[in-house]
Design goal:
alpha/beta; 7-stranded parallel sheet; 8 helices; about 250 residues; Rossmann fold
Length: about 250
Amino acid sequence: MIHADRVALVTGAGSGIGRAIALGLAAEGARVVVSDLDEAGGAETVAAIEKSGGTAIFVRADVSKPEEGEALVGSAVKELGALHVAVNNAGIGGPTAPAGDYPIDGWDRVIAINLSGVFYGMRHQIPALLDSGGGSIVNVASILGQVGFPSSSAYVAAKHGVVGLTRSAALEYAARGVRVNAVGPAFINTPLIEKNMTPEARAGLVAKHPIGRLGESEEVAELVVWLSSEKASFVTGSYYAIDGGYLAQ
């Protein structure tokens, strides 16, 4: 198992991509700290890991609050003994409106969760990884960390910021054994899309992907599991799109 005896922390792990990542890491032998605001969803993820013979604990945390990011890392180290892998996945879509009409409170919330939340996480994850002798951080950005998208200025700005933050931190800690990378999913077939989109809107999204379908959470998880393992030991400061050809257009 490529993550045997490693301790991994995954934010936003109560559903969707985060749950798939947590399950994927656990399947490869990691002991997983599952974190989310959704306690019921987090408990379901933990139960799924334990049912498969893995080890997991749930820690509720709001990534937009730096003190909760610190407490989350502290819980990982206290309960499981160390931290070797961190996946900053928690995020929201936010309001949709042109930049000239975008609600200020919506902007503040999206930036707080999607960008500041990643920084707050890394701010405390990096010292813990150094204490453990090194490790890996994977930040879940988006294809919109590379291109624009109408009526989503806050989300696009935050995800671009995550990519820049990833690259800077990777340079700072490369020589000290901490690798930092970002992944950029396109539109993924999550419960959020299933519940909130009409068939017509879904078909429009599918049409944006040359491969002819949306991605699956498990496909993103496969990439994250590899990046966070020693199989990717020469990879840092990189952005990996997983997008069905979206960015090739």
